[in-house]
Write a structure and sequence with these properties.
Peptide Deformylase; two-stranded parallel ribbon; alpha+beta; about 200 residues; 4 helices; about 30% strand; globular
């Protein structure tokens, strides 16, 4: 099932998500549906709050980067096979000199901005079989994971921009929240309160 992706302005995107147990209702179906939803929107990552479920769950598939010539052959091979489900993730460490990359988000279509993130991470999580993993990632994969991890913490990539950049995109964000965009995947827009 393809879920509509929750748009900027919906309060669910600002929630710190709750940890879950392996008997969480319909978890396998939710994970499968999230992959289907992500692929239909041509994304490389998706967090549960982006489909309206405030739980500590996100998925990543870096394979689209396997086609990108700017990466080495070794990196492209790594991306090709990088598909993971992260449940109850906890960031243990982020290290190295911050680097900028032009990020976007399925919940914030048509806005892309340079975001600074540290290049190395160490993260603890459970996989789809609820087996605990502690792994280190770097470079582009670390960045994708950091972006999705932010979602389960109620943080959006636009929060990491300078106040000047935030002012520049303010009207675009307002348009997204109002549903005044034409997008080629299903979205769910917030029900904004009317002013009296």
């Amino acid at each position: 099932m393809i879920y509509p992706i929750v748009a900027y302005g919906d309060p669910v995107l600002r929630k710190t998500c709750k940890a879950i147990t392996k008997d969480y209702p319909d978890l396998k179906e939710i994970i499968s549906d999230m992959y289907e939803t992500m692929y239909s929107a041509q994304g490389i990552g998706l967090a549960a709050p982006q489909i309206g479920i405030p739980i500590r769950l996100f998925i990543v598939d870096a394979s689209p980067f396997a086609e990108d010539e700017e990466f080495t052959e070794e990196e492209r091979k790594y991306f090709e096979n990088f598909k993971k489900t992260f449940i109850n993730a906890k960031m243990i460490d982020e290290s190295g000199d911050s680097w900028a990359f032009n990020e976007g988000c399925l919940s914030i279509p048509f806005i892309r901005e340079d975001v600074f993130r540290q290049p190395k991470i160490k993260i603890e999580y459970q996989d789809e079989n609820f087996k605990t993993q502690i792994e280190e990632f770097d470079g582009m994969v670390a960045r994708i994971i950091q972006h999705e991890y932010d979602h389960i913490e109620g943080v959006l990539f636009t929060d990491k921009l300078s106040s000047f950049k935030k002012r520049l995109i303010k009207s675009k964000l307002a348009s997204i929240a109002k549903g005044n965009i034409d997008i080629d995947y299903k979205m769910r827009f917030p029900k904004l309160k009317k002013r009296r």
